[in-house]
Write a structure and sequence with these properties.
It is built from 19 helices and no strands. By secondary structure, the protein is an all-alpha fold. The longest helix has 37 residues. It is 83% helix and 0% strand.
Length: 465
């Protein structure tokens, strides 16, 4: 039996043995479909907003940079608990699973409240550094107040959806996102094409549709979590579980900075692109919303491998974890290259969905070709970084991402795009160099095996409590 056959799909008999007996494909396929649907929410927003103006699209894109950053922080901090939960499942320590799940939910609820207050009262300050036109700043601020102000719904859903996957119910997030997309499509249509009858501004209506879709997702996710047998016990938080929180944060905090480094660099890069004008910002938005789909297969298998490798680490099966990582990296690399080439062939019809601006079509068409290099590097990042996170080796990633994100991505974007005068082409070249740099360094880290000592120590801590 090949590695592909062994790890890709588990039989019903194997699945019945426990949540850890599941195939990569059975985890990755629902994650892939969920990612497509989740990405479609943003794509739908852009498609409807493009009916208003390119300026509105640019403004909402800038606002979403901050909202996505907060989502990443919530996902990363909850991810520390999820990594420990996966390892606890691998060693069949379900008492720890309950306690860690309750910690993750409580922490994300608190984060959701904090983020909501930040967006409600601090949007103008956050947008100040972006150097946007006054009208665009107003659009972005309104969107952030509505969508960002209700971050708690997204934060709660992040935890519940992750728990469903870890407990062997990977289809649940897919159901959630189907419902979210339906609500979002209907809401956007009504907001843009029937806003007069509703007595609402189109931009506010699109933002409210996004919030309503997230409320729907949170409600359904909590119901599925309950039916799936996942139970939260807030009594387990008394007395205050310092050791469990410390264990989760030892992964969650570095993991958070790890992801934040990339997101903040994207925000600063967007600020650099604003120097080039709103047309270039709109070009970036349209291209990003399309090429994001290129990496979804690799991202799905990377996320699936994080769960499966977590199980393997918990069970002490380090060599099997290495085999899973190598297999998933191959899948990610092949899929990213294949989809990138397909999108290059279809780039002009795809861009034509959003705009007829000749400058955007010309520049965006060339960016699609440059993006092939970005996707090759991204395939390494999505798979190797997920594997390292599953082992708990996140501090090294944090250092690499901080250095590369600021020096290569941000510094390179300004040097190539502004100083050298290459414009958006130079910015994209910096993105490619950043992805390649981080991907190759993280691959070297995995192959060195230096993550094993920390993984073994953490495994003993989980087993001993």
């Amino acid at each position: 039996m090949t590695d592909m056959q062994k790890y890709l799909w588990a039989s019903k008999e194997q699945r019945a043995l426990g949540p850890e007996y599941i195939g990569l494909g059975q985890l990755a396929l629902p994650i892939l479909l969920e990612s497509i649907l989740r990405s479609t929410v943003g794509l739908i927003d852009v498609a409807f907003l493009s009916r208003l103006s390119d300026s509105v699209v640019s403004a909402v894109s800038v606002a979403n940079q901050y909202i996505i950053l907060c989502q990443i922080i919530a996902s990363s901090l909850a991810g520390g608990s999820i990594v420990c939960i996966n390892q606890a499942i691998g060693m069949k320590n379900y008492r720890r699973v309950v306690k860690l799940s309750s910690i993750a939910l409580s922490a994300n609820m608190l984060l959701g409240v904090v983020f909501g207050l930040l967006f409600l009262f601090g949007s103008n300050s956050l947008l100040f550094i972006m150097r946007m036109e006054p009208a665009s700043t107003g659009y972005a601020c309104r969107y952030m107040n509505i969508v960002g102000g209700m971050m708690i719904f997204q934060c709660v859903e992040i935890v519940s959806a992750s728990l469903c996957r870890s407990m062997g119910h990977p289809n649940a997030p897919l159901i959630i996102n189907l419902a979210e997309n339906l609500v979002n499509i209907v809401g956007n249509y009504l907001a843009v094409f029937h806003h007069a009858a509703l007595g609402i501004d189109p931009l506010d209506g699109v933002a409210l549709a996004t919030v309503l879709s997230r409320v729907t997702g949170m409600t359904i996710s909590l119901a599925i979590v309950h039916r799936a047998g996942v139970r939260f016990s807030f009594r387990s938080l008394v007395p205050f579980p310092k050791e469990d929180i410390r264990l989760s944060l030892s992964i969650g905090i570095p993991g958070g900075f790890n992801n934040i480094a990339y997101s903040v660099s994207q925000i600063i890069s967007t600020a650099i692109i604003t120097i080039l004008g709103e047309t270039m910002v709109a070009t970036k938005v349209y291209v990003n919303n399309i090429v994001h789909y290129v990496a979804l297969v690799g991202m799905a298998f990377g996320s699936a491998s994080s769960i499966l490798i977590g199980y393997k680490i918990g069970a002490g099966e380090f060599e099997e974890a290495n085999v899973v990582r190598a297999l998933v990296t191959k899948i990610g690399l092949i899929s990213n290259i294949a989809f990138s080439l397909l999108f290059i062939l279809l780039r002009y019809p795809l861009l034509g969905i959003f705009t007829e601006n000749e400058t955007i079509l010309r520049v965006g068409g060339m960016i699609f070709i440059l993006d092939l290099a970005v996707e090759i590097g991204r395939s390494l990042n999505n798979t190797v970084a997920s594997a390292l996170q599953a082992t708990g080796d996140v501090t090294y990633q944090m250092i690499v991402n901080q250095l590369s994100g600021w020096i290569v991505s941000v510094g390179g974007a300004y040097l190539f795009g502004i100083v050298f005068g290459w414009g958006l082409y130079g910015v994209w070249a910096a993105f490619a160099l950043d992805e390649m740099t981080r991907g190759l360094i993280l691959l070297h880290r995995w192959r060195s095996g230096k993550w094993r000592a920390g993984a073994e120590a953490r495994r003993k801590m989980i087993a001993g409590n």
